């Protein structure tokens, strides 16, 4: 019940900005999100995870992505924040890196991500799990054609220097950095 | 002026002194000596003194002397002088007492004791100032108006008696009490002692002895000692007759016995013919009440010490319970009863060695028994609490209760009596403030106690748990097992289950058992559906088709039936999908039962086997020798053990020999399962036949479901802690609301996390939980 009321609150706050499919009930969004949470929890995908930030609010999540092994990001862990709009899944969630991530497609200052499925290629069949998996693979395979961080894009071919830059910005996650 | 008053006073004093002087000098002196001499205590052993008769004193002279003394107001001092004489003479008596007591202590002969009493009485009488010398006839003229009545009478005798008794009590040795008790015992139970005949054969008059005791004032002083004889006798009687005698009321017969023996004895000891009737009555009723109380108490103690066994033997012990109830109204032993029963329960019942069924049985008996003893249920509440708590911790309690609800065939005695009317389960109700017949709670009820109307046993059992949902769930599991165990669509058994469910509906309500209803309907439906499919295309497969949604989760399996079985299944499924296009069959072949005919070289066998074994048997018709490694992929079984087991089981029918992981079908060629020869009924679900060895329960028990639930919860905790870092327990608790079906309390979650910590999965730092990496 509190899920419904809280999501109602979330909806009313975002109502002005969210013009698209307005008639869908907040309850069904919450239901979808809670199903996704269940799927994500029960699936054993290594290195990706996410969970709602607060009880009672299913629309703000925190995620964790471990860098894929055999890439330059191996053994690094990144925290991201996921914010679902009230008309999810018709509109993609807003995702940004909380841990500074030196990456061609990530803005080092804001953490904003340039990933096609999060923008024009978004589809309602995607889920938190697919997003997290895409982000994980994006770490190892950046799209250097549309960089948000041109410097990183240019350094990508020089792993030594890139790693140095990466480690310069990187801050490891501490236990209570939630 | 005060001088006149003063003068009178002085003159009075003066006159008095003159009087005294005169008396002292002549007549007074003689009267004093004479009287004192007359009164002087003498030694009974002294023949001379004994011979000196008191009659030798001249009564007239004595009276004159007394009058003289009275006039000179010397009676008081005379009394004191006499008592002083008594004191001085008392060692005579003491010597005698010691003599008798020594003899008594050596011989333990009550007769000696009796003689002592009689002798003491003699002493007392001998020294007693005779009433005759009381100057009751003394002239009434009195020189001084406020002087006391001149008398050597009652007061004098009372003083003497008191002094004598004081002396006597002081000089009696401690063994005297024992002797008196011995004597009293002798009177109460003469049958256990020598007959009441004196040493010389003359009958002993015990009445006289008791009169002696009374006159000497010993009856009052030693009353408790004497009564204790009666108490002991009551206790002895109860201990002799009552223990173990639970099938008949003992209290009435005890009371009868008491009125015949103890009361008789009491009359003999305490009632003297010379007592006025009004005095006797209160004594008797007082002592009688105490004896009756003691009977109750003794019986109560015995029964309380036996209460646990009494409860076990219920209902054969009804009489004992009713005795106990009556006793408890007189004796306040309720606390002791509760304590005893709780202790017995703790040591004899609530331990891992006791079967849950036994505990439940005893609990039900306890309910019934304590309701007899104490209808309001306070005792029951106090006793039942630990049992209920213990049962709540037992994993199979619900199962046992439910099994008894549906009247399991195996359990001979059901918890419910057949003649008990079926009532809906009663939920605890809020107190009804408008109840006109409201009674206050009993005085020893605890604060937790709730007056509940005597509800039926099943309601009480169900109320062990907070909700009846658990029962309904377990009921479904049980029903599923029982339905799947039915072979060949035995309609009679299905009807029996249906009848059970109807009865349970009355208890639990229609809505709660909706799912069970669906399960029963599935059984009917699958029979009908099977009929339809068989009409289209004959098949040896007869599946039971159940609705995935309404049945408890069944153990799934990756068994793929090899060979012809798979073909049979597939063709059946095809027919079925024609008949019900919107439904899809998901086979659970491992739950079925196959009837196969085995043609061996020398004989033919018809056996019912679980499908896995049938599959192996069939494989042996293709090849004579199989290795385990070859067998496993064919059936896609996980784990070799099951394969081995099954292959060994096949050995029961044909004979297989194991050698280095190879199985050889030794007996006969063509021994393979030509399953199509026999009537093969492969139901999708049916419990394995009892002979089947790997007999896992096909339905997930509530525990297994709980374990699965725990796994889900752990995944959520893991995800939470991965992303949110460290969290306090209550935060985890609220966050877990995201998990479906989360219903743990914070405490339960705490122990859950604690268990995870012991596994090394999480660590707890200052109340914050985090993953252990």
TrEMBL record, chain A:
Q: Which UniProt keywords apply?
A: ATP-binding, Nucleotide-binding, Transferase, Ubl conjugation pathway
Stored Pfam families: UQ_con
PROSITE patterns assigned to the protein according to its UniProt record, in alphabetical order: UBC_1, UBC_2
Catalytic residues, per the record, are 114
Q: Which SUPFAM superfamilies does its entry note?
A: UBC-like
Where the record annotates domain UBC core, the positions are: 28-175
Region called Disordered, residue ranges: 1-28
The UniProt record lists the keyword Isomerase: no
Locations of Low complexity compositional bias?
12-28
Q: Where is the composition biased (Polar residues)?
A: 1-11
Q: Which GO terms describe its molecular function?
A: ATP binding; transferase activity
The answer, when asked if Transferase is one of the entry's keywords, is: yes
- Give the CDD domains listed for this entry: UBCc_UBE2C
Q: Which family does it belong to?
A: Belongs to the ubiquitin-conjugating enzyme family.
Name the record gives this protein: UBC core domain-containing protein
State the taxonomy lineage.
Eukaryota, Fungi, Dikarya, Basidiomycota, Agaricomycotina
TrEMBL record, chain B:
Q: Low complexity composition bias: which ranges?
A: 686-696
Instruction: Cite the Cullin family profile domain residue spans from the record.
Output: 433-631
Name the InterPro entries for this protein: ANAPC2 (IPR044554), ANAPC2_C (IPR014786), Cullin_homology (IPR016158), Cullin_homology_sf (IPR036317), TPR_ANAPC2 (IPR057975), WH-like_DNA-bd_sf (IPR036388), WH_DNA-bd_sf (IPR036390)
Q: Does the keyword Cell division apply?
A: yes
Alphabetical list of Gene3D superfamilies matching this protein = Cullin Repeats (1.20.1310.10), Cullin, Chain C, Domain 2 (3.30.230.130), Winged helix-like DNA-binding domain superfamily/Winged helix DNA-binding domain (1.10.10.10)
Where is the segment annotated Disordered?
674-696
In the record, biological process GO terms are: cell division; metaphase/anaphase transition of mitotic cell cycle; protein K11-linked ubiquitination; ubiquitin-dependent protein catabolic process
The GO cellular component terms are:
anaphase-promoting complex
Tell me one GO molecular function of this protein: ubiquitin protein ligase binding
Write down what this protein is called. Anaphase-promoting complex subunit 2
């Amino acid at each position: 019940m509190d899920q419904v009321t809280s999501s109602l609150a979330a909806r009313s706050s975002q109502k002005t900005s969210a013009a698209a499919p307005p008639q869908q009930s907040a309850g069904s969004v919450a239901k979808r999100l809670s199903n996704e949470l269940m799927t994500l929890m029960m699936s054993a995908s290594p290195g990706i995870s996410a969970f709602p930030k607060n009880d009672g609010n299913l629309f703000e999540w925190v995620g964790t992505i471990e860098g894929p092994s055999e890439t330059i990001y191996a053994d690094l862990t990144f925290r991201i924040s996921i914010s679902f709009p009230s008309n999810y899944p018709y509109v993609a969630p807003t995702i940004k890196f909380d841990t500074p991530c030196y990456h061609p497609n990530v803005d080092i200052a804001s953490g904003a991500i340039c990933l096609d499925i999060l923008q024009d290629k978004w589809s309602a069949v995607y889920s938190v799990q697919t997003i997290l998996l895409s982000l994980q693979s994006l770490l190892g395979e950046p799209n250097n054609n549309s960089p948000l961080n041109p410097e990183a894009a240019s350094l990508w071919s020089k792993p030594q220097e890139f790693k140095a830059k990466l480690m310069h910005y990187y801050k490891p996650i501490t236990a209570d950095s939630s | 002026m005060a001088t006149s008053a003063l003068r009178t006073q002085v003159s009075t004093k003066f006159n008095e002194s003159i009087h005294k002087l005169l008396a002292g000098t002549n007549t007074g002196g003689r009267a004093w000596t004479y009287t004192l001499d007359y009164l002087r205590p003498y030694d009974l052993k002294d023949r001379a003194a004994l011979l000196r008769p008191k009659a030798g004193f001249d009564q007239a002279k004595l009276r004159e002397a007394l009058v003289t003394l009275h006039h000179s107001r010397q009676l008081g001092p005379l009394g004191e002088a006499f008592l002083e004489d008594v004191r001085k003479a008392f060692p005579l008596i003491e010597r005698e007492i010691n003599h008798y007591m020594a003899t008594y202590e050596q011989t333990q002969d009550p007769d000696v004791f009796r003689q002592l009493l009689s002798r003491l009485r003699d002493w007392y009488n001998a020294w007693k100032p005779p009433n005759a010398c009381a100057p009751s006839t003394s002239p009434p003229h009195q020189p001084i108006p406020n002087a006391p009545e001149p008398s050597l009478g009652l007061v004098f005798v009372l003083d003497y008696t008191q002094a004598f008794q004081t002396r006597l009590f002081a000089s009696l040795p401690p063994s005297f009490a024992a002797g008196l008790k011995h004597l009293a015992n002798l009177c109460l139970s003469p049958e256990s002692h020598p007959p009441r005949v004196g040493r010389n054969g003359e009958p002993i008059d015990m009445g006289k002895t008791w009169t002696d005791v009374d006159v000497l004032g010993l009856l009052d002083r030693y009353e408790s000692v004497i009564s204790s004889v009666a108490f002991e006798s009551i206790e002895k009687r109860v201990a002799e007759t009552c223990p173990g005698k639970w099938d008949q009321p003992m209290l009435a017969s005890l009371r009868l016995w008491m009125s015949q023996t103890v009361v008789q004895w009491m009359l003999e000891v305490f009632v003297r013919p010379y007592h006025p009737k009004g005095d006797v009555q209160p004594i008797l009723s007082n002592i009688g009440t105490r004896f009756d109380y003691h009977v109750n108490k003794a019986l109560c103690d015995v029964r309380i010490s036996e209460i646990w066994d009494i409860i076990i033997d219920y209902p054969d012990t009804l009489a004992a319970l009713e005795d106990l109830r009556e006793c408890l109204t007189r004796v306040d032993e309720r606390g002791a009863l509760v304590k005893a029963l709780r202790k017995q329960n703790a040591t004899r019942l609530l331990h891992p060695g006791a079967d849950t069924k036994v505990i439940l049985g005893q609990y039900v008996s306890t309910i019934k028994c304590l309701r007899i003893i104490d209808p309001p249920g306070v005792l029951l509440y106090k006793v039942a609490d630990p049992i209920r708590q213990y049962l709540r911790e037992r994993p199979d309690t619900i199962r046992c209760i439910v099994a008894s609800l549906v009247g399991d065939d195996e359990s001979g005695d059901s918890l419910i009596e057949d003649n008990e009317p079926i009532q809906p389960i009663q939920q605890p109700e809020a107190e009804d403030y408008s109840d006109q017949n409201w009674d206050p709670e009993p005085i020893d009820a605890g604060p937790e106690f709730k007056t509940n109307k005597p509800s039926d046993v099943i309601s009480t059992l169900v109320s062990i748990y907070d909700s009846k949902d658990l029962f309904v769930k377990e009921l479904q599991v049980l029903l599923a097992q029982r339905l799947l165990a039915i072979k060949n669509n035995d309609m009679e058994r299905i009807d029996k289950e249906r009848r059970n469910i109807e009865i349970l509906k009355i208890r639990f309500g229609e809505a709660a058992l909706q799912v069970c209803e669906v399960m029963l309907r599935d059984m009917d439906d699958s029979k009908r559906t099977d009929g339809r499919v068989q009409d289209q295309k004959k098949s040896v497969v007869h599946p039971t088709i159940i609705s995935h949604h309404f049945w408890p989760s069944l153990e799934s399996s990756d068994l793929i039936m090899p060979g012809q079985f798979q073909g049979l299944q597939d063709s059946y499924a095809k027919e079925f999908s024609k008949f019900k296009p919107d439904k899809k069959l998901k086979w659970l072949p491992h739950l079925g039962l196959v009837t196969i005919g085995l043609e061996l070289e020398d004989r033919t066998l018809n056996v019912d086997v679980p499908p896995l074994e049938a599959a192996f048997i069939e494989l042996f018709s293709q090849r004579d020798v199989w290795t385990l490694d070859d067998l496993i992929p064919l059936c896609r079984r996980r784990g070799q053990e099951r394969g081995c087991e099954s292959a060994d089981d096949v050995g029961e029918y044909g004979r297989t020999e194991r050698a280095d992981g190879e199985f050889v079908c030794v007996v006969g060629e063509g021994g393979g399962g030509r399953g199509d020869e026999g009537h093969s009924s492969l139901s999708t679900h049916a419990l394995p036949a009892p002979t089947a060895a790997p007999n896992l329960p096909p339905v997930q028990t509530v525990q297994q479901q709980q374990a699965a639930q725990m796994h889900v919860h752990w995944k959520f905790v893991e995800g939470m802690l991965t992303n949110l870092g460290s969290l306090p327990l209550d935060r985890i608790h609220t966050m877990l609301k995201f998990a479906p079906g989360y219903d743990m309390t914070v405490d339960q979650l705490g122990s859950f996390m604690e268990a995870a910590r012991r596994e090394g999965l999480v660590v707890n730092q200052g109340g914050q939980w985090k993953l252990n990496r």
